[in-house]
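Appendix B. One record, verbatim.
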Amino acid sequence: MGSLKPLHLFGVNFRTASIAVRESLSCDRDRASELLRLTAAHDPRLEAVVLSTCNRTELYVAAPTNELPIEVRLRRSPLGTLALLKSDTRYQTGDDLAVRHLCRVACGLDSAVLGDTQVLGQVKSAFTDASRVGSLGGALHEAFVRAIGAGKRARNTTAIGRGAASVGAALVDMMLQGRPDVAPDALHVVVLGAGKVAGQICRHLAKRGIGRMTIVNRTEARAASLARECGAQTAPLANSEALMRRADVIVTAVRSEKPILLGETLQRLVASRNGQGVLVVDAGLPRNVEVIPGVEILNVDSVVARRHSGLQERRAAVPAVERIVEEAVAEWTTWCASQPLERAIKELFAQVERVSRQNASQLASISGMSDSEAKTALIKGFKRQLHPYVRELRTR
């Protein structure tokens, strides 16, 4: 790599360390930013990024080779307080292998849940924080740019992130797929219940921009609290059947030993809708809804089946994502190989400017230009002559 700073990765994750060790090394964004800021002030030639999630803490660093060994350098820096270097459960690698690992993390291949949809955002945040505090140099900048690009391509072009992360999210996904005839912002959803699962569903509905949501619960204060959080309405329990007659989707999420939505109630609902379909989501366990012919019911078993199907899709996407990772690593390798040439080109153009400044007065006296005009004319002329040769060098 010539004089390019070598990359180093030190880390622990769910595969190598217990939760107790990971907790001891966990570092929130504020603390990570402060450590990086102090490190940048203490050792400006040391590049560093901290990536810390619930399942991993990783330290990516780059430093010149002709100075202190990297571990000694880190122990003497504010980053030594992470104690990552002292852990006997750490993994350590460098250069292309470190970049490959980072790309796999960003793509969701190195997560406890294959295709983790949150980790790419966490990689972006780590990159942004390091850039903001000034601990990010050329080597790490390029590595993270390649990894983030790979993560985006993986999610946009493969099924690696397919499938919901929670029961509530999965039910909402299926709910919207079950009513393709109505746009989300035109849907009216009635939710019976205001507990944990109901809250999860209501929050996901709010994120999806559902047109109208009405929450019905035996405890009205609890329904009102959830409604305020999700931008929903509330209604008395006594009005629930009338509301359900006008709803596009009915959601039940109540802890009850017996069904709360009986077959005879469903039959009345079906009869009152003049053939218009109704979708019922039963998020209760035990089940809240009696099964009758002609009424589509989505329940927790549907989520389990969907999750299995989604996992199969994500597993099938792994080879394609691995190819994306290798392409990103190849881009990184190409960039590294180009750096000696880029430094030589930069020095060449710097020399052009120096020579132009030295000869500007002579050209000015001959041409009648000012010194500034003469310098500009010389620089443009030299660069115009050099550009074809530079292009040819970059394509070799």
